[in-house]
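Quick start: read one record
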Amino acid sequence: MATTRSKSAHSRTKKHIYRARVKASPCRGKKASRCMKKYGCKNTKKGRRRSYCRKRMNRSA
């Protein structure tokens, strides 16, 4: 009998895959405005300053 995965396990897997892409994105750790324009990065100011790429940019990373 085949075992089936629950929906929550599936979403965790997708999240893990996306986070791996984010970690490998060209924007990671970059704060220069030139990088923001070049890669389409976005800054957030929640607690600490972070930079990340939009999803479409992470697909190619």
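The helical segments are 7-23, 33-39, 55-60.
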